[in-house]
Amino acid sequence: MKLLLTNIKELLQVRENCPEKLSGAEMKELPTLKNAWVYLSQGVIEDYGTMDKLKEFQDFKTIDCTGKIVLPTWCDSHTHLVYAGNREQEFVDRINGLSYQEIADNGGGIVNSAKKLQQTSEEELYRQSAIRLEEIMRLGTGAIEIKSGYGLTVDAEMKMLRVAKKLAKEYPIDIKTTFLGAHAIPTEYKDNKDGYLDLLCNEMMPKVAEEKLAEYVDVFCEKGYFSVADMERVLEEGKKYNLIPKVHVNQFNSIGGIASAVKYNALSVDHLEVMTDEDIDALQNSDTMPVALPSCSYFLSIPYTPGRKMIDAGLPLALATDYNPGSTPSGNMNFVVATACIKMRLTPEEAINAATINGAYAMGLSHSHGSITKGKAANLIITKEIPSYGYLPYAFGSNLIDSVIINGSEVQ
Ligand SMILES: N=CN[C@@H](CCC(=O)O)C(=O)O
Ligand SMILES: [Zn+2]
Question: What is the similarity comment for this entry (predicted)?
């Protein structure tokens, strides 16, 4: 299918040569073309320009974008989209005064989701996850990372990753998968964390690698979960299978996970709600992308990642949803972008860069996603008629998306 989008009020994130990632002051720039067209063919962006220089094409469908803004689809580099059931009861428990940590200590939290997932068939898990995937595609997400970590047994971790891989096969959206066996200590190993890590390293990881179920490896490095030494053990093991680290660090405490992840050449460090000056220093001049998850801060009422401070210190920053049943039951990247502006003081330009180019980098998709560049995936959001792109985060509660194109086809 060939599509020609014409009369675009403003085409955002237009980059002839797109950098892999944007850092510090570079994030303030959002290159655009006003009164533009873009031509999509064979699933990629073939060409673009301004309406006064519209080229001639053959056999295409035209979409008139008068009054509308067009931008690359969101790149959501951190999700737990494959899960079973929900944790609505824990949400109510928190309203009634229990903390996220108290709920986890009482057998809720991640191990609660693991119990539900272990009891759910692969078909049912796929069905529930596909509904969420379809929803986020309609909300403008065109590439996504999905983690395991609600299985916590060999079989259930494999089941989660097989479901993620099946979604990748059945849907046009690009999906990257991450093995997060080290998400929590399962109840059976409550007093034997090393025994669980033995199982993870000696059985789970070799099987995941053998069936090519994951590109990345993740660890929840946090007090009460996995220490820096535990994380290093898992990342060291991951090296044997070329599993690249993308890790959960600094959600509640700064315990040295960032410096360690950088040492292991992590592609990203995610959460970062609690950041010391040493943590910021550790990220300087590294290839590791810091990823903020503002919807998680919103839902749990915990601090927001100090994104303003980090960008002002010259760091890059990506934004992602963290879509999961416990801390962020939302996969809406539009809300993430708005919340980053409202609560983290990112400018609309910085937030859009963080949710497109830098999000693509944080899942190894810089070459194919995140910008309007010839040859990149034909993944576009067409907005409703809006006054300017700053209106997207400003009118944070409105659905401003008219339609979404992924790999050159309109999402239904
Ligand atoms: N923090 C660790 N893991 C998930 C949430 C886990 C849960 O509560 O189910 C997160 O990224 O927020
Ligand atoms: Zn997460």
Answer: Belongs to the metallo-dependent hydrolases superfamily. HutI family.
